[in-house]
Amino acid sequence: MKHKTFFWFFLPTALAMLLFIALPLTSVVSQSFHAPHEEVLLVSEICDPFGCATESTIDHQATEQLKKDKPLGQWVGFEIYADRNHLAFKEVAEFWQTRSSFTGFISSLNNLQFYRAMGFTLTYVIVVTPLVILFGLIIALAVNSLHRHLKGLMVFFSLLPMIVTPLVGSLILFWMIDARGIVGSGLQEIFSDPNLSLKASTGLTWVTLIVYGVWHSAPFAFIVFYAGLQTVPKETLESAMIDGASRFQQVIHVVVPHLSPLVAFVALIQLMDNFRVFEPIVGFSASAHATSLSWIIWNDIGQEIRLFSSAATTSVLTIIGVVILLLPVLIRTWREFNPEK
Amino acid sequence: MFLRKIATVVALTTLASSAWAGCGASDGRVSIVGNEFPAIQTVGAGAMECAGGGVTVEKNLTADHQKINVPGMQGNPAEFTTAIVANSSIVALMNNDVIRPLDDLVAKHGQGLQKSQLITVDGNIMGVAFMANAQHLVFRADILDQLGIAPPTTYEEMLVAAANIRASGMMDHPVGGAYAAGWNLAEEFVNMYIGHGGEFFKPGSAEISVNNQHGEDALHMMRALSDYMNPDYLTHDSNATSAEWKAGNVALMNMWGSRVGPLKSDEVDPSVANNTDIAGPMTVGGGSTPASTLWWDGFTVSKNISDADAEATFMAMMHAIRPEMLNDETSPLAVWLIDGYQPTDAAKGVFAAAAMGTTPYPMLPYAGLMHSAAGKELVDFMQGKETASQALADLEAAYTTAAKEKGYL
C-alpha cells in the first residue's frame, strides 16, 4: 500500500485511538501524580433537628484561587504510589525486617489492601486462564464431533454463559449458592453440615469465584477454537488415521499444533481480562474475602468521599500489571512473526 | 385485581399531575436524586405531582445515590437540581461546594417549615430536613413471650436472649444484622463504638483515634453477635437482613426505623408481620449512650442551576413535604419532621432513640473517609483472621493515608 493511501485509511482509527485511549491514559497518569490541595478547615456552628454543635467544615474561599490556578491539585510525584494504600514500600520494608518467618511476612502483607488484592487477582489469573483454554478446547472438540443438525443448537447453548451480563450471571449464582438457595442448601445436605456456607469462608469464596470465572469465559475460548477446528486440514487427519493414530493422538499431534496460534490469542485476551476481574466480586458481595485491583478502583470512587488520585494510581498499577503479564506472550508472538534470519 | 391497582395508580397519577401543575411555579426544571426506601419514594412521588405547565420533574431514586449525586451536581448547569441527603451525605455535597444556601427561598416559600427542620451552617440554611431515622431494636414478640424473655435493652441481654432462643431449638441464627462488608459493617462499628463511649477523632482535628479499649470492646461485641447470625452475614445488607426477617429466620435485630413498615406489610407471612415489634436502641458495655446514631433525611438545592430552576425545585420539594401529604398510609413510613405529624406505633423506636440521647451521626468533612476505611479493614477481624487491635491499627493507617491524600491532614 502506498504511504499516502495508508495514511488516509488509518487516520480515522488513529484519531479514535488518540481520543479514546491515549487521552484518557494521559489524564489518568497525570492524575496519579497529583493530590487535592490541602483543605482549610473552619469551625462552624451546624444546627439540625437534633440541636446545634460546633463541627469542622471546609473553607472553600480560602483555597478558591489556588484551585482555580492549579485545578489538577498539588504535584506529589510518586508519593501516592508509595503510600500504604498502594505499593506501601515503607510498610513492606518494615514487615521484612521484623519478620519471624517467610509465611509470617506473607500474612502481614495481607494487611495491605494492594497486596491482598494482588494475592487474589494472581491466583484467579493463574487458575482460570489454563482452565478456560482446556474447557474451551474440550467443548469445541465435543461440539465439532456432533451431527451437523445438532451443532447450531449446541453452539448457541454453549455460548449462553458468555451472553449473560457478568453482573447478572454472578447475581443469579450468588442467590443459588446462598445458604438458603438451591445449591447452597443442597451442599449442606450432601455434606450434612448445616453451617456450611460458600460465602462465609475465604477458601470457598475463592473457589466459587474461580468456578464462575471459568463458566463465564470458557464459551469465548470455545467459539475461537471451534472456528479454528473448521480449518484443520483433512489430509493430515486422514493420514494420521491411516497411520493408526487414536482419536486422542490425532488431537494432541494434529489438532492442537494447528490451533496453537489461537491458544496464544485466547491466552492473551484471558490474561488481560482475568487480571481485571471485577463484576463477580461485586455480584457475589465477596469483598470481605476477595478483592482485585479493579475492585479497589471502584471502591475508591464509589464512596461518599471519592479518592480520584488513589483510583488513578491503582489504574496505572493495573496497566503495568497487565503489561508484565502479557510480556511473555507478546515476545513469543513477536518472534513468530519475525523469525531470526 | 393487580391490573385494577395499576389502573388506579395510573389514573391517580394523571389526575394528580394535572391538579398540581407547577405547584405554584410557572416554569423550571426539577430533577431529584436520592436514596430509595418507602419514605423517600413518597417524597419523590409528591414532587412528581408538580409536573405540568412549564415545569418538568424527574426523579432518580437509587441505593447508589451517593455515587452519582456529586458528579451529577458538579456540571453547570447541574443534572440534578436537588439531592435528597442524610446527615452523612450532605457533607460530601458541602465538601464539593455544589449546594446553595436556601435563605431566600425559605423566606419566600418556606412558611410551613418549622425552625428545627432547617439545617444551618453558621446561620446559612443549607438543607431542609423532613424525616428522622435511627437504628433500634426489632424483635419477634411471640418468640420472646414463649421463652419468657423481656425485649433486651442492652446488647449483653441480646446475647443472652439469642443463646436462649438457640437453645430452645426454635432458630439456629436468631440475630439479624446488616453486617455486609463495606458501608453497613462500618455503620455497625460506628454505633457500637459510640455506645462504648468512644470518640472517633482527636478533638478539633482530622486525626483518627479508634485503636483503644472502646474500639476493641466494640469489635468483640460485634464478633459475639455474629456467632448468632446467618453464616453469610458479611454479605447481608439492610435488604438481605429484612428478607431474613420476613422469612421468619430471625428474632432479634438492630434495624433502621424506616425499614420496619415493610416488615409488617400484607405481603409478609402474618405470623411474622403481626408479631414484629420494636423498642428503643440498646446500650452496651454498661454505657448510657445508646449504641446507635440519629439521622435526618432532607433535601438540598444545587448551586449550579438557574434561579428559576432553583425556585421551581424548592417549591416542588415543599409540595412533597407539605403537611397535607400525611395520611394513614404515609404516616407510619417514617418519623416525619413535618408540622402536624402524629407519631404512629412504627415511630416509637426512633422517638425512644431521641429521648435516650442518641448521638447524631458526625457531620465532619472527613467522617466518610473513616467510614469507608472501616468498611474494608474490619472484615479480617470479623472472620477471625487477626486481632481487634491489629484491625483497628489497619483502619487508622488506611484512613490516615486517604486523609493525607485528600488534604485533611
Quaternary arrangement of the chains shown? heterodimer
- State the low-pLDDT regions of chain B, or none: 10-18
Number of separate strands of chain B: 11
| Radius of gyration of chain B from CA coordinates | 22 Å
Mean pLDDT of chain B: 91
Bin the strand percentage of chain B: 15-25%
Q: Helical amount among residues of chain B, as a percent range?
A: 40-55%
Q: Measured on Cα atoms, how large is the radius of gyration of chain A?
A: 26 Å
CATH class of the largest domain in chain B: Alpha Beta
What does this protein structure show overall?
The complex is a heterodimer of chains A (341) and B (409). Chain A is mainly alpha-helical and 341 residues long. In chain A, 70% of the residues lie in helices and 6% in strands. Chain A has a domain at 114-337: MetI-like (MetI-like fold, Orthogonal Bundle). Chain A has helices at residues 3-32, 60-69, 79-82, 89-97, 102-109, 113-144, 148-163, 166-176, 182-190, 202-229, 234-242, 247-275, 279-283, 293-301, 308-337; strands at 34-35, 41-48, 51-58, 74-75. In chain A, a hairpin with a 2-residue loop joins strand 2 (41-48) and strand 3. In chain A, helix 6 runs parallel beside helix 10 (202-229) and helix 6 packs antiparallel against helix 12 (247-275). The radius of gyration of chain A is 26 Å and the shape is globular. The two termini of chain A are 25 Å apart. With 409 residues, chain B is an alpha/beta fold. Chain B folds into two domains: 2-133 and 295-349, Periplasmic binding protein-like II (D-Maltodextrin-Binding Protein, domain 2, 3-Layer(aba) Sandwich); 134-294 and 355-406, D-Maltodextrin-Binding Protein, domain 2, CATH 3.40.190. In chain B, 43% of the residues lie in helices and 16% in strands. Chain B contains 17 helices and eleven strands. In chain B, strands 1, 2, 3, 4, 5, 6, 7, 8, 9, 10 and 11 form an eleven-stranded mixed beta sheet that branches. Strand 2 (41-48) of chain A pairs antiparallel with strand 4 (118-121) of chain B, so a sheet runs across the interface.
